Amino acid sequence: MSTTRAGRLGTVIREPEVLERSQVVDPGLLIESATEEVHAARRRHRREVVERTRLRRLVERVDSAIELCEETHLQGIKEVPPDVAERAQKVFVFARGAVRKTGDVDALSTVETALARRQVKITEVMDILWTIQEVVFDLMLPWRTQLPEDVEPEGDEASLVGFWREFRLHP
Known about the structure:
The protein has a two-stranded antiparallel sheet with strand order 1-2. It contains four helices and two strands, in the order ββαααα. The chain has helices at 27-74, 82-102, 105-115, 122-140, and strands spanning 4-6, 12-14. The longest helix is centred in the N-terminal third of the chain and has 48 residues, at 27-74.
C-alpha cells in the first residue's frame, strides 16, 4: 500500500511501494518469455510455410494428372490406360499424405471417400482428381467454404434471356 504526501508546488508524490518478494518480477524472466514467444512464432510460421508449399505442390500434381486425363479422354480412350493409372495412383498417395498432415478430419474423410470410388473409366479418375482439388482449395483458402454455392437471378425465364450478357468484359 503506498501513501501520498504533498510536495512542493502542491503536487502529490507517491511514496515508494515496497513489494513482497513474490511480487517482484525478474527482468531475465521477461526477456526469456519474450524470446520464447518469438521462437514459437518462428516455428509456427515455418510450419505454415511448409504446409502451404505441400498443398501447392499437391495442386500442381493434381493439375498435371487432370491434364493427362483430359488429353487421354480427348483421344477417345474411355478406360484408364496403365500409365495414367500409375500417375493417378502416385497423386492419390501424395494427396492422402498431404491432407492427413493438415489434421483436418473432414477433408481427409472426403479424400478417402473419393479414393474409394471406382477408377475404371478416365472420367471417374478425373472426378476423383477434381474432388481432391476442391478439398485442397478449401484447405488453402478457408473462406471459400463461406461462399454461397450458387446464385440464381430472380425473375421469370423470359426476363432472363439476356441476363448474362450484362457481365461481358468488353462493351
